[in-house]
Amino acid sequence: MAEGVRALFYTVIQALPQSLLFFLLFFIFGTLGVELFGKLECSEEQPCSGLNKHAHFKNFCIALL
User: Fold this and answer.
1) Which terminus of the chain has fewer Cβ atoms in its 10 Å neighbourhood, N or C?
2) CB of 30 within 8 A of CB of 60?
3) pTM
């Protein structure tokens, strides 16, 4: 059992640099999304297809999703 946990821990440590680069990519694109589309407003004249109360760029946490 301890050998399996040790191997799992070693694997997680080995994957950490790639995971941090992946998170950095998400961070950059989330920030760009908030800056570019954060103030986008939808109206009857100009409906926003694909944006609603659950999918928007008004805050950083939702933009990361």
Assistant:
1) N
2) yes
3) 0.72
CA dist 14 and 27 (Å) reads 21
Measured at the CA of 46, the angle between CA 38 and CA 35, to 5 degrees, comes to 15
Number of structural domains in the chain: 1
Element (H, E) at 13: helix 2-37
Question: Dihedral sign, CA of 6, 7, 13, 19?
Answer: negative
Q: Which domain holds residue 47?
A: 2-64
Longest dimension (CA), the chain: 63
